[in-house]
Structures are given as C-alpha cells and as structure tokens.
Amino acid sequence: MKTAVIGFPRIGKDRELKFTLEKYFKGEINQADIYGEADRQKEYGLNSQSEAGIDFISSNDFSFYDGVLDTAVLFNVIPKRYEKLELSAIDTYFAMARGYQKGDKNVKALAMKKWFNTNYHYIVPEIEDDTEVSFVGTKPLDEYENALLKGISTKTAIVGPFTFLKLLKYTGTKCFEDYIDIFTEEYIKLITALDEKNVEWLQLDEPWLVKDIDEGEKAIFTKIYNKILSNKKSVKVLLQTYFGDVRDVYNEIAELDFDGIGLDFVESKETLSLVQKNGFPKDKILFAGLVNGKNIWKNNYANTLQVLNELKEAGVKQIVISTSCSLLHVPYTLENETELSSDYTKHFAFAKEKLKELKELAELFETEDYESTEVFKQNKELFRNRKDSFNKEVKDRVKAIKDEDYVRLPEFNVREKLQKELLKLPEFPTTTIGSFPQTQDVRRNRLMYRKGEISRDEYIDFNKKKIAECIALQEEIGLDVLVHGEFERNDMVEYFGEHLDGYVFTKKAWVQSYGTRCVKPPIIWGDVSRKEAITVHWSKFANSCTPKPVKGMLTGPVTILNWSFPREDISIKESTLQIALAIRDEVLDLEANGIGIIQIDEAALREKLPLRKSDWYSQYLDWAIPSFRLVTSGVKPETQIHTHMCYSEFTDIIPAIDAMDADVITFEASRSDLQILDSLKKFNFKTEVGPGVYDIHSPRVPSVEEIVTALSKMRQKVSDDKLWVNPDCGLKTRGDNETKASLINLVEATRQLRGEKIS
Length: 759
Fold this sequence. Notes:
Number of strands: 23
Number of domains: 2
Largest sheet: 8 strands, parallel
Strand content: 5-15%
C-alpha cells in the first residue's frame, strides 16, 4: 500500500516565512531574500515527506500568501487596478492580497473569506469582463522541476477548474457560465505543459464537490472534465476532494477518465457507504483520506484499518492511504514542544508525525496479523479511557440546562428602548471591535512575565498604563463606546483557554490563518470549566478611567470551540455547552461589577457550519445558536450585549444570526463590498448592526470620503437608529500611527453624517 499527502504547511516550523515577508513589507530586505526563504521552506516540506517514505508528495502546495490567489495569477486573473500600479510581479501579487498605498496610489485589497469550514482564509479572485484569461504562469512547472532536481518526483497540486470558477467574484456583466469554456481551455494548456515536462501526476483539488450540487452544476462539472481528460496524454489526473463526501456526483466522478479519486473518510461518515453501495472503478486508484488533516489527535489505527478492510471487501483493488485534507491546517511538528509532558504529546500527531502514521498504517495493512504487532498494541493502548479528561460536576451542570436557560427576557424591542434611554449614545455610535495594536513593548512585557523576569505586579502595572493610554487616545479621537485594548491577551481564544480548566497549551504549534497571520490553537483535553474571573479586573480598571461606556470583551463559546483543537471522545456540541456555561459565569461577573456593555465575539460562528445546507440546522445551528443564548440569557435588560463576526459568508444564515438575540452585531463588510447589507434588509434584521467601514487587514488608511461613501450605502439598507460605525475587525495586527489615523477619519466621517439626513 502506498501513501499520499494532499499538501504540507508552508509558513515555517518556526514561522520563518512569516517573519521574512514582514521584513520585506517594511522594506528591510529585498526580493532575493524572500525567494531564498521560500526555497528553504519548500525544501523542508519535500524532505520531511521524502524521509518519511511518503509515495505521493505534492509540489505547488507552497504559497507566499494563498493558493487560490496563486491560481488567479497563474491564469492572469488580475484586476486592472492592480496592473495600473506598475509594480513588479510579486509586488502586484502582494497588492492584491494586502492592498497598496504609496503617494497618490491607493488600492484596496481583494476580499478575503474562510476556506470552506476551516479557519484558513483565502483571497477571493476578481474577474472583470475584459480580463484576458490565459495560462501565463510557470509556478507549477517550476516547483515540479525544482523538486526533481532534489531527487523527489512529485504530483503537481492546483485548485481545480470547477472549484476555481465557483470561488471567483464576477464584477462585470459576465457570470460563471460565460467562463466555463475559457477556463477549460486554459487548464488543458496546463495539462499539455505538464505532459511536456513528463509530470506523472496532476492533483486537481475540487472541494466544492462536497457541497450541494444540483443537476445543472453536475452537467457543467462533467462537461469541463470530459474535455480536460480527453486531452491528457501521459500525465495521470487525480481528482482530490476533502471536507466532506461527494454523494451528489459520486457516480459521475466514477465514470470520468480520472486515474485517481481522492475521497475524505474522516469528515464525512457517508463516504464509506457510498463506495460500498456503488462500488469503485477497478481501473482507478482510490486515495483514501483516513488520517485527519484538521485535528491533532493520534489516529486510531484499529478504526482506520477496519475501514481499509471494508474497502477491500467492497472490491476496491487499488488503495493509497492519504491525509483527509492538506496538513496546512495543523502545526508542523511535536519536535518543537519540548516543555509539554509526554503524558500529553503521546496522544498528539502534528503534520510531521502524521507522515509517520501514514507509513505505519500502510505497513500494518500489509501485515497479516497486525493486531499482534507492537505498533498496533501501543496505538490501541492510547485509546483506553483517559480518566483525567472527565469532570462529573461539569457534566452534571450541562445535563441540568433547561429550555428556559436559552431564552433572554424581555424581548429585543423592549430591551432596545431601555438601553437607548440609559446609554444616551449619539446617532451612529462609534466604537472599535476590541483589540488595539499589540506593539513590541506589549509583547515584550508579556514575554518577560512568562519567563519570570518581572513580577506579576510589574506586569499588571504596565498593562494598566497601556489601558489608560488607550482610553485617553479613544477619548481624544472622539469614539463613543470605548474598549480597554486587550493588551493582556496573546490571542482571543488562547487567552480564555489559559483561564479555563480542561485545556492544554503548546509553545510553537502555529497554524497559518491567512498570509503572514498565524494562530496557536489551544487543545481541549478534558471537560471545561472556569477557574476564576478572567477579565473583570481589567474591565473594571478601564471603566474607572473614563465617564464613557467601556465594553467588556469576551470570546464566545462557539468561536472558542472552533478555534481550538477539539476533543474527539465527546461531541463538539457537548464541549461547546461546557464552554458556554463558563463564559456565562464571566458575563454575570462583569455585569455585577458595573460593566453595562459586554461584547461576546463569535467570529467563527460559521466555521463548522456543514457544507451542505440540508445539514445546517440538524447538525449545527440547532445547538450553536442556543449556545450563544445560554451565555447571555441571565443578564439584565439594560445590559447591552454585542457580538462580532468576520471573514465568512453570512448572507445565507442571517435569520439564524438574528436568532442569537444579541443587541448589537458587528460584521466584517469592507472587503466584501458591503454585500451583507442586502440580506439584512431582505430579512428585516432586528438587531442593531455595525458593518465594518474599513479593512484592518490592510496597512492602508481609509480616507474620510471613502468611509462617508460606505456609510451612505449602509444607510440605504439599515435604518439610522440601528446603525453603528466601526472597523471590520480588531486592531491587534496594525501599527499605532495607521490605527490612529484611520480612527480619526472614521469619527470625522461619522460627524459629517450626523450633520445631514437622507431625505
């Protein structure tokens, strides 16, 4: 049995690429330096997989920023506004990803959205009516040849044409159907070029196929691939799917002339039954995704080998054992975790360790009596009950939740009136999402405290000074509802996990979220509960610094769950309810200490939403939305509850979001051209709302005129008495100067609006 990996992490096991790119963006190094670092990261990934004995290793899975953006550039899908900047190829690429501002040149970045049901963000490519789609790039060919020079033959991986067409944003009069034949021809040119280079395998990623596919889409998919596959010569084509099953197109896929078909057996339990019910073509190789590419727990060999045996019994002749998706979504290696006890690490497998799992599973499957092997016995022992992960008190509290605990009274309209009378905020209240820049001195203070180089009192005094400065800055700028800046927090999820029982933490288990942004998800080891008050001390101090209202800032239970590595021995619903009860305790403590506005961020609400609409409520929203309500149902009517959501497509779940029964919701909207506004109006959204007026993931400073234009558009869809004004996300990653300049413009734009009314 052979082994395969869909894709490998690329940011660097010590985030080397991240730091190199950030230096380049600051003008401290040149292009040769970033290309040199890119070569080192590609070599590390190739060597790690080759040394582990992986048979099918991907090339072209590396990216400076995002693979979808790479595909757009490969086919010349570059909006004219970026070409007009007259930059080098790599700087044009970065302008599309990050925006560009220099002199009189000021261009916003392309939109950014979540990659299906993950916390990775992809850049949304834009295509204009006059875009000359053409296979002009050489990246897939170059990376294949570079790997070959190192003695490693790879499969070339790229986003497939059907998924790419679905991800495109069509900005003109043309639409999806108008580009089908055009992109089909350009992908044929890619295959021809690969044939000429004697590339053995091409991996075309088509994750869109795990969504609901109607008859029209099915016909388009079949049309595209009938034509593409009829033009391949020596190159073999692997159709790679992940994040679910392909029930709507399984038979169509089986009939097409693919040489290999990659199916996900981890995230969808339907995949095995699809194969058993329909069979699998004897002339094709099944790339069976059986090692979880999205979570960090060791593979249960007994369960995996059972699936392999069932596939064999179903008549599948050729099987390659693979990861369920790219390993981009897990950290690099446990080798970095020198301080974490083996009592924990023996249960984990990061990207490099999953390579070993693939090889061991392949060898076990070829062993007649694998149950007697030491490798199998040791793995089996790991999955006996971990008694330290269960807490009876927590479980009993979850069982005691009643239906009325999910309902906040009185109803929204009554609360809204009470809150307006109490808070007396001006029209179009201005605020920020929560965090302020985490500058070098802030990070140094946290690091020195963790290393024991300063006392707790010194650490606290420093943060209080920063909070007081932050409050003063917001008062100077003229914001209406203030925040304390979150200087004590390393990450909006990790910080809360550190103050909850049931969590385990790593030192260097970084995962790429977008571009150079990395996160270090905590690990839910056991039942979760709150040890003590988490944020009350900081919020009380901030509140004492100003007569203006200051928001208490919390992360919601669904986001904490979704941005952690969850347990696999209980349901994510049960884990989320445990977290919800812990955050509920914090909310009530904040309220008892005089905090009248509390923001509970659910940035990742959509992240684990099933990709098939038919499963949305039965498998997710029917407990995710109530989990948020469980957090807030105990507060007084006068306490204003805010929440925040970002970088996902929320337009199709607006009714569910309204059902969260928050008082104010802020959305990311600037990069998506305020598309969410139509949905808010269509569904008569009752909650007060703050669509983001500028993009904080770009270093550019928005002008007053730009913000006024955005607000004017908002007022056409949202009534004045429900509209808040804010950036689209937290300001943690931005610098002090650009943050102040942007917020000054935000307040000035709001003041201009307050001086005029739309008739």
